[in-house]
Amino acid sequence: MISINSTNKIRTYKIYGIVGALLTLAIPYFIMLFQVGDIEKEQSLCPFKMATGFPCPGCGITKSMIFLYQGDVVKSLYYHVFGPIVVLFCFLTIIVLLFELFTKKELFYNIIYNKKIAYILGFILAIYHLIRLVIFISNNNVHDILQQSIWQ
């Protein structure tokens, strides 16, 4: 039997999930609405890229989402292949979690908490990032990489 305290905790986590997905969708949208300069030329706010000059595995997802919101799918995929996937995942997360909150049924518990799927997605992201790093290093010299960091 599930206790009331456990049920409230699960409900709270679902609400946090909805809020997190909404913020993930909203922040790039508001950046797009209130951008002053050219988003393509703006310095990344990624702490890893600012410190090293190299992109982290998530670098470019925000710009990818912004270009997707603007309807430019090609630029969106150029900045990060997973940008459109993040948007789709966030919308699905919101829909599923709202449905679960209202119906009190677990829909995809076995899929969401599946370690094999998590490892496969992590492996795909690692391979994609390795390919991006090889392309990044081949297209930039040391001076260009340092220009993208705080050590310029």
Helix content: over 70%
Order of helices and strands: HHHHHHHH
Structure classification: mainly alpha
Oligomer: single chain
- Radius of gyration, taken over Cα atoms and rounded to an integer in Å: 19 Å
Q: How is the main sheet built?
A: none
Q: What share of the residues does DSSP label as strand, in percent?
A: under 5%
Q: Can you tell me the overall shape?
A: elongated
Number of strands: 0
Low-confidence stretches: none
Total helix count?
8
Mean pLDDT: 88
**Structural domain count:** 1
First-last Cα distance: 60 Å
Description:
The mean pLDDT is 88. This protein is an all-alpha fold and 152 residues long. The chain has helices at 4-34, 47-52, 61-69, 73-79, 83-103, 109-112, 115-139, 142-147. The N and C termini lie far apart (60 Å). α1 crosses α3, α1 (4-34) runs antiparallel to α5 (83-103) and α3 runs antiparallel to α4 (73-79).
Topology:
Layout: H1 4-34, H2 47-52, H3 61-69, H4 73-79, H5 83-103, H6 109-112, H7 115-139, H8 142-147
Quick recap:
Helices cover 72% and strands 0% of the residues. The chain is built from 8 helices and no strands.
